[in-house]
Design brief:
Helices cover about 0% and strands about 30% of the residues. The radius of gyration is 12 Å and the shape is globular. With about 100 residues, it is mostly beta strands. It starts with 6 loop residues before the first strand and ends in a 7-residue tail after the last strand.
Length: about 100
């Protein structure tokens, strides 16, 4: 496992790292310029927020190895620039990956 224990958001502005720790994934994200969402191996529970689909500049989404459940939001289909990483493995998700 990787050594980090907190989620990280990588921003397009200056590529600053902002640490966020929570039991569930946040629904309010700091900027629409976010290019990567990494909440892997953090022990997060609940569902994937539909708001993640509003971040259309995201090229990487890594939510692997958490305790997420429910359907994958169809809004993630709007993230059509995702070409680096899309990993939802090792969760209990119950639907197909959306395609727009």
């Amino acid at each position: 496992p990787r050594p980090h224990a907190h989620a990280r958001l990588i921003m397009a502005e200056g590529r600053d790292l902002v640490a966020v720790g929570a039991a569930t994934l946040p629904t309010m994200l700091p900027t629409t310029h976010t290019t990567a969402i990494r909440y892997d191996q953090g022990g997060y529970t609940g569902t994937i927020p539909t708001e993640f689909g509003l971040l259309t500049k995201v090229t990487e989404l890594n939510l692997m190895q958490n305790y997420l459940e429910g359907a994958i939001p169809t809004q993630l289909g709007y993230c059509n620039q995702m070409n680096s990483c899309f990993d939802l493995g090792w969760n209990s998700l119950s639907s197909a990956i959306p395609t727009q």
